[in-house]
Amino acid sequence: MYDHIIALETSSHPIPIIPIAENEFAAWLSDQPAHSKAWIAANGYDAKRGTHLVVPGEDGGFGAVLVGYRDDAKALWDFAGLPAALSSGTYAFEDRFADNGALYEKAALGVYLGGYRFDRYRTEDGKKDKRAKIALQGSDATKRAENIARGIGLARDLINIPANDMGPAELEAAAKTLGGEFGATVSTIVGDDLLKQNFPAIYTVGHGSDRAPRLVDLHWGDESAPKITLVGKGVCFDTGGYDLKPSSNMLLMKKDMGGSAQVLGLARMIMAANLPVRLRVLIPAVENMVSGRAFRPSDILQTRKGITVEVGNTDAEGRLVLSDALTEAASEDPDMLLDFATLTGAARVALGLGLPALFSNDDDLANGLMENGLALHDPLWRLPLWDEYRPMLESKAADMNNISGSPFGGAIIAALFLDRFAEGAKSWAHIDLMAWNPTDRPGRPTGGEAQGIRAAFKLIEDRFGK
Prior knowledge:
The protein is α/β, with parallel strands linked by helices. The chain has 16 helices and 20 strands. The two termini are 30 Å apart.
């Protein structure tokens, strides 16, 4: 996944990467030899953030790589373009740069993410061996960056794998592989056993597929430690059911398990950092398909909480499977309950693709997630659980409907639906996200993306990791 990163000691003479703060460029340039000044001037280089320039040495050979940056929340992306831009060879940041551990961590994370490739289905073309290698110091900053990068990489990989190879069983297998790496216990409830153990909404939504629905349940850490529970929407493919999506909307529906990918990536960060918490991860893993067994509009579903739900739209299935998982999660009254889901197009209309919507019943939790998100450039933006909209979920035939009759406020309506089932959790947040990059940017290639989990990890680490 990140084979462009190597340990610094493996190369005795790497090509130096010289980071230059954009506002310090003039002072830095004044101290350089004449041949470097001439080369930099000839290329019109001014160390703008995220730009780089190869500078020859005195002998005319490869001397160094200059890279401009600003030391702010976006700094990691200033370095993320290096792995793709540099020619074959081994490179390393100049020694003085490592003195600033926080900045070095951002740079290391940037070059990790900048070298991410999803090439599982591509024939080997020999280019892999020609990629630049970047040597990093074996410092705490590097270790932290690697942990974050591997969590993000896991989330990206799971989303990028197509649904023919990432169904409910394969998602379960991914959770078990992760659990095995860190000594976690992973159990599953599959198919008809979901009804026997009172997870009827998960069963009903997933029963229309030939690939059996299931609830994946991961436990890790000391049972006496603070409880952190993560719930991730695991709809491995979403046709929309009988409220069938048009083909253009169905094209990216392999990513509808993006919430489950987030919680597994976040869980990996927590376990790798060995945080002193009791971690639980719940993933309702299903496909929303059309068949003789699939649920229909106007059906009335049972839920684990005992609330009956009339199906106003079969394409609002994510909130149904999350309802059972959230009921189970809230029953333990965890110290923190987070759910991640690719839930509504309305959140994307409101906030765009790169800014997940955040809802919470706890101001301290919401503020902490937003503050960390802005500080790390992993943003979340809070929308309200607006009480006046609750009546819009009323049903004449059941306790509630899974949609409202209005085309407005869809993200809030969905969050209010989930709020009924997270009831009892003293500190709960719901993150409605895209989990996808539509275009290439440094460190953020087109495809599956982790959103909000760096912010969540930092908050959990700060609150419970001391």
